[in-house]
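Write out the 3D structure for:
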Amino acid sequence: MRAIYSVSVGTDCSDLLRQIDAYAERSFGFPVERLAPADHPQAAFDARRRQYSADVVLAILCRTVPYSAVRLLAVTELDLFDPALSFVFGYARFKGPAAIVSTARMRPEFYRLPADRQLLAARVVKESLHELGHTFGLTHCREETCPMSLSTVILDVDTKQTEFCTGCAALLRELLRALHAGRAASVETGRH
């Protein structure tokens, strides 16, 4: 059975993954399976920046995507960056097999505020939907409450909701329908 797989990278984020899994299953229509936590990706560490390359972590993850995976979503506490940006909340390749979300800059403590697990979970869920959306073929949305809107600061994340806007939801339904049809066609013709 095809599924979205979720995994912790570096440290165990099972408590957050439980919440993400429910939203991912509802939003994308695939069951979600959990993988054992992945090792700390030392090869991705950039000593000069004191951060981890999101691209390198994603490349490592792409090599571990299970055959039955529709997509793989990873959550980590590591602070991620893209060479063009000082940090990223999450990272995915458009229509790629995997995505990663970082809790590092979503924690209220990062902004010298009291810890708030509920707020952290809400933020991580929204960014997980965003990054998974990219893997299924959604681009950035101009509707600021849509999970697919661009987040460059934490207030952008807080403005988002967990429901895709009407336009993104309609496009996602079409993309998922095509994905299901493509998979069915490859099984019928013997291609895998």
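The longest helix spans residues 166-188.
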